[in-house]
Task: structure prediction
Amino acid sequence: MEIEILQKTETSVLLVLRGVPTAFVNALRRIMISEVPVMAIDHVIIIENTSSMYDEMLAHRLGLIPLKTDLDSYVLPKDCTCKSELGCSKCRVTMTFDVEATEGVRTVYSNELKSDNPGIIPVSGEIPILKLASDQKVKLEAYAQLGIGKDYAKWQPVSACTYRYYPKISVNTKTCDACGECVEACSKRVLQVKGKKLLIENVVVCDLCGDCVKSCPKEVAGIEVEPEQNVFIFQIESNGSLSMERLLTEASRILAKKSEDFVDLLSLKEDPE
Ligand SMILES: [Zn+2]
Result:
């Protein structure tokens, strides 16, 4: 397997994976979406709410705020030794929210959510939660815990996680006379004519639509586009709760654990006793 990183920022990555089957890439994608744990608010105790927003709606909005996650210090409630419904310091983070509109109408943002662990806070302090009219007040206590996207989408660490086949574009030099029809037909601007030659400029953005092939006026098309076998372009966008490296490492670890469990089960079956 080969990995080439095409683009990388703090919250997104564009990779080319070579020499892997579709099933492997898809398994990684599905694990990232639904099985890598992250923190999210799961219980809310409303002490006071004189705003025009229902308690349920407010709790729902708080649950959807992505939180920075520390996978080394916390465990999933089901794996915690406390076995308590209320949770403990290893499986729960307490947050408080005490806001009031003292000077006219105002919007309350996620940075007003105070956490008992300064490492577990909203990934952005600029997420609007609700609007308060004069003298309206909200006071509540919220409990965040680790969870997985399979149980609820609020625990999903990625906002986008997709892969597509790597395009294989070949120019048939016998029939192509670089007329430029395909250059015009391509909405992604993959092709270019330079000095009577058709050149492939930006192969990564090609989505295999085939418009270039259809636009060729020649009887035998001067250009061919097909998916490259076992090569994929993988695009991942994290919502900020985990770093890209951690997200990919955790997903790979979970996949490896599944394979180990499978092998263990097989060896149990093979055991004559
Ligand atoms: Zn616990």
Observations:
- The radius of gyration is 26 Å.
